[in-house]
Amino acid sequence: MIFRRINRLFASVFTKLLVIVVATGAAITLTVIVGFAFIRFHRVTYLDRNLALYTDYLKRDLGDPPDFQRAADIAGRTGMAIRFDHPVGGWQTAGFPEQLPLERAWTRQRGSDIGTGHIRGHVFIRITHAGGSLIFISSHRAADHENAGVVFLVMAAVLAAVLAAAHFFLRRIMNPLRPLKEGVEALGAGRLDHRIPSSGRDEFHDLGDAFNQMAARLSALLSSKERLLLDVSHELRTPLTRLKVQLEMVPDQEIRQSLHADVAEMETMITAILEEARMRSTAAALQPQPTDLADLLKAVVDEFQNRPPGAVCGTLKPVPLSLDGDKMRTVLRNLIDNAVKHTPAGGPPVSVSLYPDEAHVAIVVEDRGVGIAAESLPHLFEPFYRADASRSRKTGGF
To answer: Does the global pTM surpass 0.70?
Structure first.
């Protein structure tokens, strides 16, 4: 159990993100520290190395005893300050820092008569010469420019590589979100057979499994609901048939006709339910044939001539298409039937028009009914949805 929890902890998305953030921060910090440490070390040792290298040259150039004018010339050319300490007398060039306690500075001996060191942002070298000591001193800033540009470019490249690596790993960890998003969109579009490929062992894997289980349960639930609806509708046909036979024996003609109308309405609804289920199960098996949509639309409109307020054709232009005529006729019949049902008594007939363009064909069914509320519009293509929740006898249907 403990091993599983530990394994789960290291497989967690949050742990991975935390590790990436911490590793990225540590890499950036280390890069900055190393870069500045290198710059500091370089500027501290730059003059140190070069002064030690040219010790003999400087001694010969200054002469024995050291000449002040030559020292001033060297100081002017190199940017260093030079001082000569001697028991009898000494001198120093312009710009020599007076307040530096050189006697307390850390010094490295490079021979019996040469010592180098640094203190308070300055590098110096002390040479025993002519019975005294020569001191050459320069600020760190004199060497700052030598390799600082290269160091900063390297630091920028390393930081860019660190951020690119962090971006790569973050995208890799977050990649499972894409199929999850596509799965949610597919489920929202009604494709209940869509499944998400799951891999790994983190939270995204669990989320993918949970999504697939949810989709499977929804699919099974809707299938069982449709199966129940079909079974009930199919079984109702038998008692309805017996009712129709029994109604023929009712002596009162008025009552018989009223009951006939009720039974006929029930039979129509049951037939429509069975037909809807049959069409949903065979929706992929369309049988398109060359058809003039205008002629098909006119034929459907003619079916409503004897149903007040009726339906009339508006603008109709020949539109040859390849389509399944039976299924398209059912769609058009449903649209016009709804429009006729919801048109107030005495209202104008329903108008049906056809507007083709280069890419689409628009079929417009207009009535003078109460319309559909905005909140009901997203549900119009859901099976058995009704905007009119009262299910009044006037509009009927399901």
So the answer is: no
